[in-house]
Amino acid sequence: MFKVVIVDDEPLVLRGLAERFPWKDWGCVVCGTALNGLEGKELIDREQPDIVLTDVKMPGLSGLELAEHVKRNHPDALTIVLSGFNEFDYARQALRQQVFDYLLKPVDKEELKKTLRKGFQHLNRRRETSRNTEEMEKKLSQVNPLAEAGILMDLMLNNKHEADSLHNRLKEFGISFQKGQVVVFEMLAVWEQHQNYKTLHQFALSNILYEIYEKYRCRAVIQWIAGKCTAAILFDSSIPSVIAQKRVIEATGEGIAQATSFFKQRVFAGMGHFVNRLDELNTSYLTALSSLEHHLFWSLEFAETGLASTERVVVRVDERMYDAVNEGYEDRALQEFDAVCAQLRINRDVDHVYSICLEIVMNLSSIAKFWELDLAIPNLSELKQHAFFDNLALGLRELILNLCLTIANKRQFITLPLMDKILAYIQDHYANPDLSLQDVANEFHLSVSHLSRMFKKEAGTNFNDYRSMVRIEQAKELLCKKYWLTSQETAYLVGFTDGKYFSQVFKKYCGMTPSEYKESQYTYE
């Protein structure tokens, strides 16, 4: 069971959150509640929860300040912040505090359940990684001290425990390397296409890199850590740092080129800081991971620095984009969105990307709510699942397009005369075998008798005849395009439940049976 703490300064809301949801069924237990941030802070320190659910606005200590406390003192816990639509500034600050997600009040049960499920998965992955690290450290402690790779791996993974002891081991066994740099490689596209040959591909990449680094006179120790190829490049004190760094850059560039050519897929790399003490390899490893994440997100080539522009562009979403969406003008809305994406690419600031994207989805959600549309609007945790900016931008682009098209259709429907709307409704629902005059009357809040008179006057026929004509026209189209369908199958697809009756109606309107009509549409040689 995961432990949950709930903090909200509104007693009724707090009680509702604690009692309204089936926490036990979701795999967690509410271990405590608090009515303000200060009480919440004490409760969190005492209970050590896995998840903190907190309101953003509270007296004494705000939800964002509480999230900062959790991040600093309980880094293994996840914080989910609750607030309203009109508090985007708080959402932006929540991003800076690295909260796990930001939910809107009133809290929707399914939305909370979905967010918690993702949170559980995140916590389970973190625990699994922690267990693997502990097991790895235990194995390393039992390995012969001469196992250089094991010592270096421990230095990279854990900079706090026994760093001096490990450094001394290197000296004791005559390992004279004094400085170096960590490079981390990722082959996401290769794994997606060749999951069954992962071990073989790991072996192939390791061999390519060993040969390249040796060619550039770099001592490389390569390990696979958390699915990534991690190379510790080592030098002794006789090699000037400037020359050593130049060798690593050139060798890494050539290694990526050869690996990309071999696997026929892009290989990404992140380079850590060059360090002058091997017990600082952990710093180099962490900065290499950060650099790799940056290169992956922006799909940068290794030759590109990957750094944000020194001349920062102030990125703002023009209100014209939201106006265009609300009007259903997809071309104009997408043009404005593409302009925002272009500015974000110049800055290359990942946190700013999520801040802008969160602003966009919150405004789109507000527009969808106004039009009473049931569209899937992504939340913060779903936005962060995108490893690449291009995929994130594409997902939002499709969302904007779908929203524009749906609103445009709604606007067009609103402007139609009543009878045109009624006929359009029948065109959309003809396949329903139970479609009746009563159903249509209910849909448009009319009496059956009034609707019947409208049909006779404005459509020139009665409801049953018009419905039959629509169904027969659709049946003719199916018989032409899908010649393999039988008359019975065609009847079901256009709303008839009886194949024989369908044939009779078809012959009444077309002067021939469905089979005869289908025969007349094809010429056999």
From TrEMBL:
Taxonomy, superkingdom: Bacteria
SUPFAM superfamilies: CheY-like, Homeodomain-like
GO cellular component, as recorded: cytoplasm
Entries under CDD domains matching the protein: REC_YesN-like (cd17536)
Limits of the Response regulatory domain: 3-120
Keyword Nucleotide-binding appears in the UniProt entry: no
PROSITE patterns registered for this protein in UniProt: HTH_ARAC_FAMILY_2 (PS01124), RESPONSE_REGULATORY (PS50110)
Single GO term (MF): DNA-binding transcription factor activity
Places the protein is found: Cytoplasm
HTH araC/xylS-type domain sequence ranges: 420-520
Keywords of this entry: Cytoplasm, DNA-binding, Phosphoprotein, Transcription, Transcription regulation, Two-component regulatory system
Keyword DNA-binding: yes
InterPro entries referenced in this protein's UniProt entry, alphabetically: CheY-like_superfamily, Homeodomain-like_sf, HptR, HTH_AraC, Sig_transdc_resp-reg_receiver
GO biological process, one term: phosphorelay signal transduction system
Residues recorded with modification 4-aspartylphosphate: 55
Major localisation: cytoplasm
Protein name (database record): Response regulator
Organism this protein belongs to: Paenibacillus thalictri
Taxonomic placement: Bacteria, Bacillati, Bacillota, Bacilli, Bacillales
